[in-house]
Amino acid sequence: MTLLESSPIVAVKDAATGLVDRATNGNDAFPDAKPGMITDVKNLYQSKPDNRGKTTWVDKYPDDLEEAAENAESARYALLIRNSKCYDGRKKLQIDSIVVQSPLLKQGLSSVLKDYPGITTTLDRLTFKAPFQAFIHRWKNLLEALESEQDPETKDHLELLHRILEAELRDDLKARDDFILNGVITYSTIWMIFEPGTTIFTVKDGQNCAAKFNSGNYQQTQCGHRYVLGCQVVDWDGENFGLGSAPFYVWEFEGTTRITKLSAYPLEYHPNLVKMKEALIRRGKAFEELSGYHYKNYQGIAIGEGPWGPIKYNVDSRIIIDTYAWNRFNPNKQVNLATLARAIENACSVDSGDYSEDEDENEVEIYDDDEDHEFDEDVATGERRNPTSLTDDQLLMCSASLKGYSLKNKKWLTFSIGSVLDIEYSESAFESLVLPEDHKELILALAESQVQHRDSFDDVIQGKGKGMIMLLSGPPGVGKTLTAESVAETMRAPLYMMSAGDLGLDSSQVESSLSNVLEMASKWNAVLLLDEADVFLEQRSSHDLERNKLVSIFLRILEYYEGILFLTTNRVDNIDAAFQSRIHISMQYGELSTSSRRHVWVNFLNASSKGKKHNFSDQDLDKLAGYKMNGREIKNVLKTAQLLASKKGKGLGYEHVESVLAIEQRHVGDQTQLSGN
């Protein structure tokens, strides 16, 4: 038994040679065969549509088929031109597609279309479809190849292709040159100015950006028509530089518009090209320097993710720049990049009409993927930097934003590079702390040693007990919170402040939030401050099971914390017994003495005078120190007095403070009386 070809044409030829065609022979040659056991095929054919447009499958061979146009005879020609009817009123027929069959022509086109996305000239079947974007973009290259070709036969084939394309694309080429000469473009021909590989310029979130254009296509949305530019920018994924996708859009417009008025256009058309390139490269160098982990200040607009899309935040805070941590704590928003060792992806445009079965890759060697890329680390700041250098072309296309965490907003955000600032540390923060010198020295020594030697001691169970936990207790306004702040400022380490409200009240939510916070603080060598930690420290009871859960979770997670944690409380007597064994050092703060209050007054007065000498005499300071006030109350009185002095157009003086104290005395009573009265 002979296996029949499924092609109708082959079936007819087989029938002509004497083979049995089941579609044309109604006799059953195998009446006793079991289902599926005949070593042959049964061809079925689609019937003509009925009056309702429906078709079915029949075994009768169609009698209205025509011979296939492409055969051995057509394969001898250098080009196959497929023509279709034209309805634009200018001509009867238009070229639908061109199939290049000449090996000489393919070899000649290899230089013309080198690195053009989606085209591989070495294919046996090389096809181009209208509107022939590749030839519009590389028309100059085609003319140069035709002019320089030395082989007569290859030149004949190139001239043939040029003659056909010139007749077909004459109007488009003329229109493109006219548009560029006048600096304008129409929406329907916008693709003409966007050649793949072009560097485009756009403004995103108020930042000038450059990107490498890969492909474009027209798209219809609910909001209207737009041209989508598929681009790539150089970005950082936490470990390596790479290429990230960056789509931009040009919305449909009527008539012509200036190229430089488009939301995105080729950088070469920028009116201040040289200055813009210099600015983009300069920002790219800043982006390169900020790769890795950095502790910085930020003032500006940052972008966060909301339930319905991006949300803008006005941020004035110290931030952590760390894309690696971003990927760790935001697994659904990870930064995934193509390696720079590969070409900017040669993706074929959906509507470009130029296609082939393979993709071409252009090597842009920066480093080998097999190499071990180490980070340079600044021992003093803990900042990590990638030593790999980018080229100027890559610096030009660097992203304008960075991934990180805002310590004040407590949110993962995207920050603009131009708004990232160096931190101005307070050199006198620790000196202004009102504590005995030996206490201050002990706290700072423990904190610094913990950062440098936290892996030198471990529990019986690996990973337990590596942290340093300090409990600061005492009445309000005596410097508990300031202690943690001063330690972080002196160590130039991030300070992560949290409270019970940041963690939530539901036990599962608290566990998840607390685990993330402790892990972040440990990775960043941050000083962690849990202010007013009474809800977690308070002794457990048999009648409040929900709060018992919170205490148990806190105790368990605390065992595996590897960083520095300050706990503050006003109710040290109510601490659960299990916490006592987990606290490395506990410090009790008493009420401020007269000398301590005088020191606090001097500190705040020096801060308010901004480097100038204040106008308070020693006698004035002695009087103020006599008031039984805590540090927070002293700060509030001085702030109010400062506002009063500003209203009167004078500098801050003792009389302004005295006025505020007189008012406070009527409300607070004995708490603000002069000592000794």
Automatic annotation (TrEMBL):
Membrane-crossing residue ranges in chain numbering: none
* Domain AAA+ ATPase: from-to ranges: 466-591
InterPro entries the UniProt entry points to: AAA+_ATPase, ATPase_AAA_core, DUF7025, P-loop_NTPase
PANTHER family linked: AAA+ ATPASE DOMAIN-CONTAINING PROTEIN (PTHR46411:SF3), FAMILY ATPASE, PUTATIVE-RELATED (PTHR46411)
Quote the SUPFAM superfamilies the UniProt record gives: P-loop containing nucleoside triphosphate hydrolases (SSF52540)
Which species is the source of this protein? Answer: Letharia lupina
The record's GO molecular-function terms, alphabetically, read: ATP binding; ATP hydrolysis activity
Pfam families for the chain: AAA (PF00004), DUF7025 (PF22942)
Signal sequence, start to end: none
**Which domain of life, per UniProt?**
Eukaryota
Return the protein name.
AAA+ ATPase domain-containing protein
